[in-house]
Amino acid sequence: MESLIQDIRYGIRLLAGKPGFTAVAAIALALGIGANTAIFSVVNKVLLNPLPYKDPDRIMMVWEENAKSGYPIDTPSPANFISWKEQNQVFEDMAAFDDATFSLTGGGEPEKITGDLVSASFFPILGVDPIFGRVFSPEEDVPGANRVVIISHGIWQRRFGSDREILGKTLTLDGQSYSVIGVMPPQFEFLGRGSELWVPIAFTQEEAAARGNHYLEVIARTRPGVTREQAQADMSLIAERLQQEFPLTNTSVGAVVIPLHEQIVGDIRPALLILMGAVGFVLLIACANVANLLLARAAVRQKETAIRTALGAGRARLVRQFLTESVLLSGLGGVLGLVISIVGVKVLVSFVPDSISQAKEVTLDAKVLLFTFGISMLTGVIFGLIPALQASRPNLNETLKEGGRDSSAGASGSRARNILVVSEIGLALVLLIGAGLMINSFLKLLSVDPGFRTDSMLTAKIILPDSKYPGRIERAAFFRQLLERVGSLPGVEAAGLTTSLPLTSKGNSLGIAVEGRPEPPPDEVPIIVTRVINPDYFRTMSIPLLQGRIFSEQDSENAPFVVIIDEAMARKLWPDEDPIGRRIKMGGYNSTSPWRSVVGVVKEVRQFELDAAPRPQMYVPFPQTGVFAPQDLVLRTSGDPLSMVSAVRSEVWAIDKDQPISTVRTMEDIMAASVAKQRFNMLLLGIFAVVALVLAAVGIYGVMSYLVTQRTREIGLRMALGAQRSDVLKLVVGQGFKLVAIGVALGLFASFALTRYMSSLLFGVSTTDPVTFVVISVTLIAIALLASYIPARRATQIDPMRALHYE
Question: Above 70 in pLDDT, residue 548?
Answer without folding.
Answer: yes
